[in-house]
Amino acid sequence: MFDKLHEECGVFGIFGHPEAANLSYLGLYALQHRGQESCGIVASDGYHLKSHLGMGLVSDVFKKDDIFENLPGHAAIGHVRYSTAGGNDMKNCQPIMVDYARGSIAVAHNGNLVNAMEVRTQLENSGSIFSTTADTETIIHLIARAQSDSLIDRICESLHQVKGAYSLVFLTETRMIAVRDPNGFRPLSLGKLDGAYVVASESCAFDLIEAEFIRELDPGEMIVVDKDGMKSFSPFKETKNTPCVFEHIYFARPDSRIFGRMVYTVRKEFGHQLAREYPVDADIVIAVPDSGVPAAMGYAEEAGLPLELGLIRNHYVGRTFIEPQQSIRHFGVKLKLNPVREIIEGKKVVVIDDSIVRGTTSRKIVKMIRNAGAKEIHVRISSPPTSYPCFYGIDTPSRKELISASHSIDEINRYITSDSLGYLSIEGMHEAVTMHGDDKIGFCDACFSGEYPVKFPRLKSDKQLGLF
Amino acid sequence: MFDKLHEECGVFGIFGHPEAANLSYLGLYALQHRGQESCGIVASDGYHLKSHLGMGLVSDVFKKDDIFENLPGHAAIGHVRYSTAGGNDMKNCQPIMVDYARGSIAVAHNGNLVNAMEVRTQLENSGSIFSTTADTETIIHLIARAQSDSLIDRICESLHQVKGAYSLVFLTETRMIAVRDPNGFRPLSLGKLDGAYVVASESCAFDLIEAEFIRELDPGEMIVVDKDGMKSFSPFKETKNTPCVFEHIYFARPDSRIFGRMVYTVRKEFGHQLAREYPVDADIVIAVPDSGVPAAMGYAEEAGLPLELGLIRNHYVGRTFIEPQQSIRHFGVKLKLNPVREIIEGKKVVVIDDSIVRGTTSRKIVKMIRNAGAKEIHVRISSPPTSYPCFYGIDTPSRKELISASHSIDEINRYITSDSLGYLSIEGMHEAVTMHGDDKIGFCDACFSGEYPVKFPRLKSDKQLGLF
Amino acid sequence: MFDKLHEECGVFGIFGHPEAANLSYLGLYALQHRGQESCGIVASDGYHLKSHLGMGLVSDVFKKDDIFENLPGHAAIGHVRYSTAGGNDMKNCQPIMVDYARGSIAVAHNGNLVNAMEVRTQLENSGSIFSTTADTETIIHLIARAQSDSLIDRICESLHQVKGAYSLVFLTETRMIAVRDPNGFRPLSLGKLDGAYVVASESCAFDLIEAEFIRELDPGEMIVVDKDGMKSFSPFKETKNTPCVFEHIYFARPDSRIFGRMVYTVRKEFGHQLAREYPVDADIVIAVPDSGVPAAMGYAEEAGLPLELGLIRNHYVGRTFIEPQQSIRHFGVKLKLNPVREIIEGKKVVVIDDSIVRGTTSRKIVKMIRNAGAKEIHVRISSPPTSYPCFYGIDTPSRKELISASHSIDEINRYITSDSLGYLSIEGMHEAVTMHGDDKIGFCDACFSGEYPVKFPRLKSDKQLGLF
Amino acid sequence: MFDKLHEECGVFGIFGHPEAANLSYLGLYALQHRGQESCGIVASDGYHLKSHLGMGLVSDVFKKDDIFENLPGHAAIGHVRYSTAGGNDMKNCQPIMVDYARGSIAVAHNGNLVNAMEVRTQLENSGSIFSTTADTETIIHLIARAQSDSLIDRICESLHQVKGAYSLVFLTETRMIAVRDPNGFRPLSLGKLDGAYVVASESCAFDLIEAEFIRELDPGEMIVVDKDGMKSFSPFKETKNTPCVFEHIYFARPDSRIFGRMVYTVRKEFGHQLAREYPVDADIVIAVPDSGVPAAMGYAEEAGLPLELGLIRNHYVGRTFIEPQQSIRHFGVKLKLNPVREIIEGKKVVVIDDSIVRGTTSRKIVKMIRNAGAKEIHVRISSPPTSYPCFYGIDTPSRKELISASHSIDEINRYITSDSLGYLSIEGMHEAVTMHGDDKIGFCDACFSGEYPVKFPRLKSDKQLGLF
């Protein structure tokens, strides 16, 4: 999948390690796939919070030698962010750090609140000012205005007023608090390293710093870490657990374990299921790299067809590519992928991708493969048609840009010029993501089904906070 | 004067011109001497505010072609800032721009509030969060919480709660408001260009954009500019007018008119007065460039001595100079100034500077001139000894670093190794700055006399907001 | 293969297209894997040569909009370069462009001359000066001193004096000349686009610009392109054809066709052959991505074992990664690769890589896989032990750093802590690279066998031009 | 003088000091006014030469901490350069460093050869290649081809073949050689620091590093410094000494001593002489800062008129100023200078500048002063009309751009809209620059008189090496 849906954010936190900021840097580095636009770290030395934030990749923002000297202390939290167009400026970098009556607090947020606008309006009406367009700032205001004596209570009081998806990591001078929303939309895991507690959006961050994976936070769980250790709370009343299936389809790294399963294994199972649902008489299976590879392996395995590297990825794709002028425009996907004629020529080819958003990229890929001599091209998508926007933190285009929202599978097949097109069924997806187990979790499939597990106030186009 | 007291901020605003952001850029460029650390512009197109802020010089922060396309509209305000060590990060850039219940508002501030910490604590106690360490943010919070219906009333209500020095320019979607504190500590002038109203810290900004200078704002005056024109208000009860004499001594550009006088003329008059108070039998007068030049011209004129360019300034002094390693350190002032031996050798020299802060730089200059062969060196300072910190917006070092706070003139003379040392008297300074007129304005001379015209809460070292 | 042998250079040229510089940019972009340290383009408008060169990736060096306006004309050549440590400065960027008696000439070079030092010494003795440490400059000097009347003759005269490996592209105001050394060590292909002739190190460059692949240049062939079209010459006496087998093993992109074969197909065949030579009782096959993937696919296919993505690559590995301080050092390969425990745990694993250089990286990978729970680890290398340095353009470490030069396979197996280790045999490699055909080409296998097809003057350590 | 004639180059060298590269950096810093486009240092540790060169100011090019670690050794030479449009790329940075038969050699050059093109053509015809467009490369080629055994003889042999202006500093592994052309067009001084010999274009470089000024090199003198000390040679037959008078008028820093005189003193004397030649009934004298100040002081002194700072310079003029769009263009000189109305209003003003090139800037200044209320404006220029191009190293515009080349003084007066205009006479200039002494040196006045002391081959427009 290229240039389609985009991952949004990743969070990290560590408490109790002398190299807290360094380890946060490494953790963010491992979570870079969840957001490449900006990043930041806030560290505490027990008395003050210090921050370093910037636009760009982790390895660019934290490239000078002396940055870590300015982030001393045994605790730190970090954030990587992808944001929607228009909100991509410096002021929206996270973690957000503020002073309020009880001292300083910083927060890193992955997710999206569905009632942020309402709460913000109420807050503004009672005199709050907002410096960012992020719904995260709303949470901070609520905490600052909360009347409870203890921080934990103030956070709980505040989170009871917001609805939607959030995996949050807070840092104060002396504590780290991590919390998942009651639905458990976004992943958040707990680990341990040299006696320090670590939290991260995905377990791949633990692997890099060689922390031990302990468990995922439960939906609705809040953990508080301070010098006396870790405590767990369940401040919300129990709710249906609806983790985001798209994390498994596309967002998370294949070497991460989220929602109880290894992403790689789930993706292969999507491929198995897809092969069962949409078999085809073909010679070879090829993947759209890199995200389509595990599903393609599963499809090939189930179908008994050989998997080939029919599309080669150029790993030097820069962020600053200048499109040549005049006649030679529109290179787009060609800059990233090149078909291998010798493999494809004269073959009936199954092409596996994880999703189709606007359809334009798929159309280019099909044409490229056709030009390389394929006899037949059968596109198989390892997820159902994406027809509805996400309100829980995935940056989907608006419905009018989603080709599945307005076109039948037949029409899409004609548009992308494939010989056949098959999408994984919603049922098949649920079967696969739970590995056909009995203990079916109710994964959120709103982007496919339109059934939103957390209701939101009126749907006003372009008014929801930076969502569409 | 090198590396001593530093100017702090400059503000600019324009309403009603199709090139508002461009002209703000030019205005800030002319005010660059008032702050080199960061700058920013906020523009309004009548519906939204847009901002561009950054660390560095105006010509660096606004160097890309497309910046002005992102700052459309007929109104804009701008700010240049010098800040104290520690507070020099991105988040303290101005103008500050926020959303609140009534829309968006931006503000650029020159000055310093003396009760910012108290007000901030009250605000935090009632739930406000603070993103910056600037006392300017306090004013925004007060406005957001004010209950009055009209913006003008809300601003007045807020300003009645703060005390200290401020020249402020606000911008909303549809209005520009400029206001000087009742004491009139900091300058602020009103001009007009092609029918648009312009405000700026100093008149030199009008010269560059070819705006007509109309008048200075009165102390305590608030002007409101919108599509219907300009209105003036006097929301404060009358107070003693105490403009900052240091603006005339060092801060303002010599080609600016502030507090009713041309800065250049006042500086020459300081020199005349100094020559009358501390004459000396000498051969030549030389200035410490560039700020000492007008006073040196005045001194030479009054004393009937020739003025010579005995110290040549290197105009390529960079911001990133790397001190060479090992043996050849401590170039300091030599990188900026070089004495001309042929002029100085064998001469009795009067050296004019505008102030002495720590004494270390003066000591180096005296030694340099001595090494160039001077027979006698008589240092004359065109202001009184700086013995007290400023609480109204000048970034002075703390008292213990001010050599005059703890040493007699004799001791300073010995320390800087001059043959004689004379400071302008406080009385002489008042005489000169008012050009010996009858209508003596009560200039604030707190940094010399310790008499502070606006009282402040307890003086807690290192606790005042970013002051010391 | 990480941090081991490095590809060296890539060349590109186009004559007769109005977008020559733009297309060269795209061509270099596709050849980026052959050199990431510096790049450059020289263009001709028929009268003058213009150049743009710089340190860094193609997308960084050519990132400003106006660069191509300064590279006008219908012809251009380009170069990407990796160079050995110490020679990595600006002055060694290519194409080299000089003025000489007949006008201007530029050259882009892939390869290494074995007698460059001798020729350089002779040239210096007769008064030549050298601005770079590249042996390419030697060729330019020879051309400038050649006595023949025609440029073609001068180039031939010069090339007869040098020995070694070279694929060269020259550009003058009015002509483009491309030539491969008589042994044909380095690849060079000819293509056509809209009537313009194109040359490139690898055919993947043609794919991106949508040029038609015509054929590879023959070893020893020189082609000359000018406004009257293309002419081919064979200026050298026939020599044994010894293309570099390492291009197929590691350097070239898998989607390129070089030396008559698709790289991807050859790599899979290496895997097949390796499975026949070193079968093992195992559960899964995993590749060291990305270069080991095709051989792993071949191995798995031949062995009838499942291929799994057991090592996940982090695609955001930056060039400026700051190693954290103190205790948490030595991340090295962990930053790039992460094992997937769920796949590996309890399994007997075959790990396929394309080569082992120092052994340190392989050792880390084996440990990583062991820590992820593998029961057995069988390392299989899809090439023979690399025991000898390359003198024909591959940047190998010196012999003392090559673990195979001084250690037996058993010793290496113990060092990298694998359960078994198998290298492809030299014979098997020749069988595979020629696809078991009768028409065996005599690929150069000097880095494995020590049999160098082109002799070089005394081997003086560290004296060969920037080679070791 | 703004945007008119530009200084070209500065050279520096030191031999025998453990901080050679550091001191070169400081020396170049002091010489920055002689060239701001690029700079470089080459250092020798006795065995190898190492270089660091780059585009930009000294403080920018040498801004990273580790640069000096890569420039070890007891000897170093440096260069600052201004170059003409078109030749402003990286490859023309100096010092030029090459390898040749006898080892390595680097050279820094200030000046311009008049027969560079002829010599270059001869060299190319015998097989030399040229990497730069600088005539300095010609000298290196001649040295490489010279047949003499000793380096000194080879340099002499080479310099006998070139004609024109040059102050050169060479560095080999073990020696530093400095030489001035027989006419002595460009300055070059000798100093000493801690036993090490130092050479620099101007003595202000000695002042900064606290080296002792010994003497200027004689025209035609060559000095050779090695571990055994310094030796002086006179390899040329005696020639008329014709130092460049423009160095005194504009180029050199006022605190430098060149050609036997302090620049500041000479400039004041130009002012005295100008006042005698073109007195005027006026109220005040003002200078165009900064270069016009010493002459203005002299004029005021001689005329008995008060000198005032009527034009204030903005010291924050950036190199990257973006001209605002649309209506508010053409700020030009206003960005740099602002008139002080209070001083000028109603006055008869004498304005002193050092030269007029195109006249456009003078016209803007006159208008600015007129707008500030001047009653009369009398422009006085402290040099004769500049009517001829310089072939000896000053980057003058071509004749058609020089207003004096085609217009009478009356016409220029009308064009710049002054009330009267007076230029210093050629005779007066010679009187002043020699301080009315008997020992008149024959300063080169070719740019005023058209009498060129060193003849050049045919004058072909645009063909001379990068001159016009």
TrEMBL record, chains A, B, C, D:
General function of this protein: Catalyzes the formation of phosphoribosylamine from phosphoribosylpyrophosphate (PRPP) and glutamine.
Cofactor note: Binds 1 [4Fe-4S] cluster per subunit. Binds 1 Mg(2+) ion per subunit.
Keyword Mitochondrion listed: no
Spans through the membrane: none
InterPro entries: GATase_2_dom (IPR017932), Ntn_hydrolases_N (IPR029055), PRTase-like (IPR029057), PRTase_dom (IPR000836), PurF (IPR005854), PurF_N (IPR035584)
Pathway annotation from the record: Purine metabolism; IMP biosynthesis via de novo pathway; N(1)-(5-phospho-D-ribosyl)glycinamide from 5-phospho-alpha-D-ribose 1-diphosphate: step 1/2
Reactions accelerated catalytically: 5-phospho-beta-D-ribosylamine + L-glutamate + diphosphate = 5-phospho-alpha-D-ribose 1-diphosphate + L-glutamine + H2O
Classification via PROSITE patterns: GATASE_TYPE_2
Domain spans labelled Glutamine amidotransferase type-2: 9-228
GO BP: 'de novo' IMP biosynthetic process; purine nucleobase biosynthetic process
Protein name: Amidophosphoribosyltransferase
UniProt keyword list: 4Fe-4S, Glutamine amidotransferase, Glycosyltransferase, Iron, Iron-sulfur, Magnesium, Metal-binding, Purine biosynthesis, Transferase
Gene: purF
Superkingdom field: Bacteria
Cofactor: [4Fe-4S] cluster; Mg(2+)
Family affiliation: In the C-terminal section; belongs to the purine/pyrimidine phosphoribosyltransferase family.
Molecular function, one GO term: amidophosphoribosyltransferase activity
Annotated residues for binding of Mg(2+): S291, D353, D354
